[in-house]
């Protein structure tokens, strides 16, 4: 690393600072001081050794403290904590090759599964709920793997700041602020996606700034290696969570900036600029896209057995899952009267038309049987297709055609699909849909006209491929799934209603199961989609699932304004061994102050430059390096924080931690810059004293606050902090802290 430091430039800065410190003294004293500096120069070989030591010693110490703090008590608590119930369970499903639905891309969960598999976990533990004891379960390998990746962010913060500033003190400050945050420690010690995400995100940022450091050595083997490393890290980041898109934007902006700077160098030919552009397209666009698709190919290949998430995907998608009712299935291609069918809503992630014995509650339309959509397969999804004017089934097969009038009878409860001019439960401009009648006998409000999307008179309704609309015969509304989740009385299933707007995009349905003995069967293999079709559908379903996320019972959501001020934490474990996710308040509140200070310093520097103040060239160059480094970290913080203000989905406190890393590194750079300027203001001995006092206060404050709040991460026993006898009582600085 140290070979990249231009010692002559740094010596120029130091000499200039010393010269300013003595500028109020006599010329003879200044000359004497200059001679003294010249006399104390050492040979370049010794300088390199000193530089190596000054870089490696603090880096080594930081590594030791990182290992000690991150891996301490990593096996505790010996029960499921917070979202381990999800990601541990998903790791088990990968080991068992059972298909499931999740709103996140697959790489993080595949790595968790791989780490468990390689360390002896057999995928049998259910991970049902937080608090479940790990008894005779080899869970440690997965925790250690996640902790290892989470631990890398501390040395990576040191490396990133070093590449940006070539300043060891700035790098030390940044690494200490990341090291001493108990929130990051908590987030990194469990079977979660967050430590994996943060590791790859920091790798992408490190690769980005390393490529920037090698701008004078383009197209060398090292340059190509770091550019490819950056692209690979980008692919891995966005393959863990979609918020990885923010670091993709950061690298994209940095790349545009670098290319624009190359374009402004008139000594470079357009051919040279084009080579740079093509190299970045190859390594930062094509390579990440190929890797991203490769991860999904592995995901879809490994998960080849039917599971609980099948119903979120199309009928065609499900036909490739072993154990699914559609896998290697044979059923009639066409629909006939008397068939028992399931109807799947054709919206992305749409469920099955469903009913059960439960009624709508008092005050919610007519007190009749509930009709919903349900994302899982069961017998309550089965419907019998009947003629509108007869309960008798045809003796010979009679096909259902575009424009026919039909009734749909729920097979289990024998009540008909029904609508009337009562207001729907949630969509107040829609009509209520219910199950009505007894033993298949109802009234005229049970009659529906079946229409094939883009069909014409005489077209026969087909299994899977026909996209259908069901229009109510009397009220001229269309059967639809709004996608809105019903309250607890509806078991959190989705609302089905009848929309007078016939163009409702959610009103399309397709037949998935078609049971009818009088027609010949065809194989479902004819409907099997390609990998690209499954890849695209997976993304549509994930994005739909993200937008539909609701808060889990017992959890506390939060809003972005609460995050930087550390307003409220999040329980990871609520048993006797309590874990509480909360940031180190000294570091978090300090980050807010230094975000403001950096903005002030940046504006001050820009004004001085714009007004043409005469300053020493070395000082100007040094300030330019610091301001540029800080600017990219400030942009990184903005990109990872501001977009959450526009999101309508449920948000949690842990969403802020990627932004926290950038603000902590920015704090390290800004703090060191301010301290360096204090050395300019005060004479040598006083300046050195002030410097060491400030450094001592900052480091000791960070470490002591880590010591005080570390029980939040390592586990709290005994009374709650609300109890005056609790050792944590005095640390409850805000009433909103619930530990």
Automatic annotation (TrEMBL):
Stretches of the chain forming a coiled coil according to its record: none
Membrane topology: Multi-pass membrane protein
Major place of residence: endoplasmic reticulum
Cell location: Endoplasmic reticulum membrane
Gene Ontology terms: cellular component: endoplasmic reticulum membrane
Domain MIR span(s) in chain numbering: 332-388, 397-453, 458-514
EC number: 2.4.1.109
UniProt-listed SUPFAM superfamilies: MIR domain
Annotated CDD domains: beta-trefoil_MIR_POMT2
Domain of life: Eukaryota
Keywords: Endoplasmic reticulum, Glycosyltransferase, Membrane, Repeat, Transferase, Transmembrane, Transmembrane helix
GO molecular function, one term: dolichyl-phosphate-mannose-protein mannosyltransferase activity
Keyword Transport included in the entry's annotation: no
Pathway: Protein modification; protein glycosylation
TM stretches of this protein: 53-72, 140-161, 167-185, 192-211, 223-256, 277-298, 586-605, 625-647, 659-682, 689-709
Catalytic activity reported: a di-trans,poly-cis-dolichyl beta-D-mannosyl phosphate + L-seryl-[protein] = 3-O-(alpha-D-mannosyl)-L-seryl-[protein] + a di-trans,poly-cis-dolichyl phosphate + H(+); a di-trans,poly-cis-dolichyl beta-D-mannosyl phosphate + L-threonyl-[protein] = 3-O-(alpha-D-mannosyl)-L-threonyl-[protein] + a di-trans,poly-cis-dolichyl phosphate + H(+)
Pfam families named among the record's database cross-references: MIR, PMT, PMT_4TMC
Family note: Belongs to the glycosyltransferase 39 family.
Subunit structure, as described in the record: Interacts with Rt/POMT1.
Function: Rt/POMT1 and tw/POMT2 function as a protein O-mannosyltransferase in association with each other to generate and maintain normal muscle development.
Name under which the protein is recorded: Protein O-mannosyl-transferase 2
Organism annotation: Cephus cinctus (Wheat stem sawfly)
